[in-house]
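Technical annex B. To support the medicinal chemistry partners, we prepared a structural model of the target in complex with nicotinamide-adenine-dinucleotide, based solely on the information shown next.
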Amino acid sequence: MKILKLIVNTKNEKYPILIGSNLLLNLSKILKKHSINFQKCLIIIDKNISSKEINKIKKKFKNKKVFSHKFNATETNKNQKSIDKILEILLKKNFSRQDCLISVGGGITGDVSGYAASLFKRGLQFINIPTTLLAQVDSSVGGKTGINTKYGKNLIGSFYQPKLVISDINFLRTLPKREIICGYGEILKHSIISKKNFFKFLNKNFNKIINLKSPFIEKTIYESCKIKKIIVEKDEKEKNLRKFLNFGHTFGHAFEASLGFSKKLNHGEAVLLGMKTALDFSFKNKILCEQDYKIINQHIQISKLPKNVKKYFKHKDIDKILSFMIKDKKNETDKINLILLKRIGLPIIKKNYNTKYLKTFLQKQLVN
Ligand code: NAD
Ligand code: ZN
């Protein structure tokens, strides 16, 4: 069994990310090897994960007290009520800080579980077992946790690093194609903001990756996590460099929020639309070089990735989209800051765009 391993080294924490197949069968060994001990654990399980997988985990914890809680992972359930429910179980079962919370699910389950772990007695051991491609390549790395409110997405949360991340590609086999494409959105983002070679690899091997072929899928997850890990290590608290990971997200989050976080547009799809919009904006404002603009557009076209904002929005939605963009965490005033691209591997932050300018741009996007 080949395991790919990355170590994330932040100022106060150091933890491994393991990538491979059938990793759960070796769970006890993995925990022992990484000196992770606990008496009790609460497993928060995405309700779409089969009981067979959960039993595999439970079997490995024969000598521990294991509790589990099924979670219906929707953006609307990514809220304080779900956090309270988890905290209630932990309190009721008298968990100590040395016990452990384990998330088995996608980015929503991971973000909610991680936030609950950070709050419980100011920090309970947390293990993340991501089960979607998006979570394996992005959300399980870097310690951002959080919930949504009616004011927007992920506005409440914490930075809280896990003790361990186990990315078992076997989980991906039951994932709908649509969710695989969502994960691919974040992978593409990582390549565009930091590594032309990785972008070329994706361009060449898109079909193999999307069909989960080994060793392409493992390499893709590894490279994607590596890009994020390097950024997070340099800027854990998003003072500067980490902001680049939000490429496509200022537009993307606003798109999601405008549709009320409905299943019509998943996070990864919103990010793909957001990146396409940011690329068009970069090009039209003479920031992005023509050659790279063309190569990325070609990739989006050939891979049939979601790119058509017009399919989801009409003119009348623009004010709503802008109102969410103003609330973005990157803004310091009512003006809008955007992560844009100069060329593949070279993103930049452009500050203080006024709403009127963006409104005209979005109006044109919805016409062309
Ligand atoms: P998700 O957690 O909603 O999972 C997507 C869907 O797949 C859900 O319906 C879920 O039930 C189902 N599912 C999960 N695992 C499955 C499996 N193995 N087989 C079949 N179905 C399965 O969504 P996601 O795309 O994983 O994550 C999106 C969330 O991640 C967003 O809320 C976003 O804000 C967050 N996010 C966080 C970070 C971060 O740094 N913390 C980064 C990127 C995204
Ligand atoms: Zn994202």
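Notes passed to the chemistry partners:
The CA atoms of residues 152 and 327 lie 8 Å apart.
The chain has a mean pLDDT of 94.
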